[in-house]
């Protein structure tokens, strides 16, 4: 779990500070991306995976599965490994995991790079949501879906 914690602290500020600001990033690191919260999510059934390249950790991903869908809650790669095809490999794996189901994810409305990747992979925007996460912050997201049930 310490590897995931290190990856979170490396990746999150770089991706999200320009989008939501340092204060909200720090708040989310302390609450939603803390080691304690990750352990809680695992105890509730979330599946976490460390992504490796040449036996070195380069990212992490997590999902939760229900009867009719797989919710992809996290997919993060280090800056040095983005754009090298690792994300495509992970998405192909998720399509196998979610075969016969729907694959759903949330993405910040201003995370244009991620949105472009999801749309390129065949995800469709099906909704938007704003969730109050405390301390005066909100998560302002789009909901994307790829229907693999057909």
TrEMBL record:
<dbReference type="InterPro" id="IPR016181">
    <property type="entry name" value="Acyl_CoA_acyltransferase"/>
</dbReference>
<protein>
    <submittedName>
        <fullName>GNAT family N-acetyltransferase</fullName>
    </submittedName>
</protein>
<feature type="domain" description="N-acetyltransferase">
    <location>
        <begin position="2"/>
        <end position="149"/>
    </location>
</feature>
<dbReference type="GO" id="GO:0016747">
    <property type="term" value="F:acyltransferase activity, transferring groups other than amino-acyl groups"/>
</dbReference>
<dbReference type="Pfam" id="PF13673">
    <property type="entry name" value="Acetyltransf_10"/>
</dbReference>
<dbReference type="InterPro" id="IPR000182">
    <property type="entry name" value="GNAT_dom"/>
</dbReference>
